[in-house]
Write a structure and sequence with these properties.
- The protein is mainly alpha-helical and 346 residues long.
- It has one domain (70-336).
- The chain has helices at 27-61, 70-97, 105-115, 125-138, 145-177, 191-197, 200-214, 225-254, 261-277, 287-300, 304-345.
- Helix 2 packs across helix 3 (105-115) and helix 10 packs across helix 11.
């Protein structure tokens, strides 16, 4: 066994983003925190199961016989799950740029996916709890709440902005399918203030205002234009998977030809954007499905109703697959890193 040099610094415990030692709670406090985390986790899974049950009952109430191409459906679920994972990686890129520090990428993406389940808490409480849940997940790892919440603001801006861009590019095609859709083109104007908010100076000002509300020091929450472009690049990748995978989902049920893929993908992007902007229902419940019902009426006809309702099941299944992938990577890579650290200190 290699001899450890006498000058080697002993392991003092976990460190925060600045390299300082994170104080450890007494054993009884850690036990209480563990029980609370377990109770919250079980409650989130219960809410998720309730959403799945309600969505399944709505699909059965449609009473429409359909033939599903299951290989194509599975492909669409995997594509959507990959999109969710890309969203997590994009969020992590902004998280690090804003001062996320030493948190490994696989840990950050797993907590990103897990805390997103808070959106399924009934009522507007779910979305209000999301910043609290994510801050609570990262604060024990030495990440200030202001950094976590600033990264969430960047996530929201990028998601809505790219979704609006997809919708704006395809408005001419949608208008040919249904001229009434031109009336929704005003929503693309929301992209203008979002573009302004992405400017590093403007974003820094927004973060400072957020810090005042949270009473947090946000002096280190700075992000360069280069980092902004990198984050947007990840969001482009995420939207390619997310919007692109919605067409195989529709085609698996309705047999829609590939020529309708741009219209269907853009419909999903616009429905997603509206569900994020309108925060009055859990996870956009009802909003996304209603918009999809309108936008899919042209491409798929009478099947638009069941496809819009069943999209909730499809979304839940995709998020579940994405969360499972994030969890398996978190367990596997954490174990590998701990083993490597043990070998280096042996």
């Amino acid at each position: 066994m290699p001899r450890v040099p006498e000058t080697a610094e002993p392991d003092r415990g976990p460190l925060d983003a600045s390299g300082a030692l994170i104080p450890q709670r007494p054993l009884w406090q850690r036990a209480v925190v563990f029980v609370l985390k377990l109770v919250v986790s079980l409650a989130l899974l219960a809410f998720l199961a309730l959403q799945f049950k309600n969505s399944w009952e709505q699909v059965r109430a449609e009473e429409i016989e359909v033939t599903i191409q299951w290989p194509l459906m599975a492909f669409s679920i995997l594509g959507q799950a990959a999109g969710y994972y890309a969203l997590g990686l994009g969020w992590y890129r902004g998280f690090v740029a804003l001062g996320g520090g030493r948190v490994p990428w696989y840990t950050a993406v797993y907590f990103f996916a897990w805390t997103n389940l808070v959106r399924y808490v009934p009522g507007p409480v779910g979305k209000a709890l999301l910043p609290v849940a994510r801050s609570a997940a990262f604060k024990p790892r030495g990440v200030p709440a202001s950094v976590t919440i600033a990264s969430m603001a960047l996530e929201c801006i990028c998601t809505v902005l790219l979704g609006l861009v997809i919708f704006a590019v395809t408005i001419p095609f949608q208008a040919m399918a249904d001229p009434r859709l031109k009336t929704y083109s005003w929503a693309c104007l929301i992209a203008l203030p979002l573009l302004a908010a992405l400017h590093p100076a403007v974003f820094q000002w927004l973060v400072r205002q957020m810090g005042r509300v949270l009473r947090e020091d946000v002096g280190e929450c700075q992000i360069s234009f280069r980092d902004q472009v990198s984050v947007l690049g990840w969001w482009v990748i995420a939207w390619v998977f997310m919007a692109g995978s919605f067409y195989p989902y529709v085609a698996a049920v309705a047999g829609t030809p590939p020529s309708q893929a741009p219209l269907i993908a853009a419909s999903y992007a616009f429905a997603w954007v509206l569900s994020m902007i309108l925060l009055i229902m859990p996870a956009g419940l009802g909003i996304r499905e209603g918009v999809l019902l309108l936008l899919l009426a042209g491409p798929v006809g009478p099947l638009a109703g069941i496809l819009s309702v069943a999209s909730r099941l499809w979304t839940l299944a995709s998020e579940g697959v994405g969360l499972l992938a994030a969890f398996l990577l978190y367990i596997g890579l954490r174990g590998r890193d701990e083993a490597d650290e043990g070998d280096s200190t042996a």
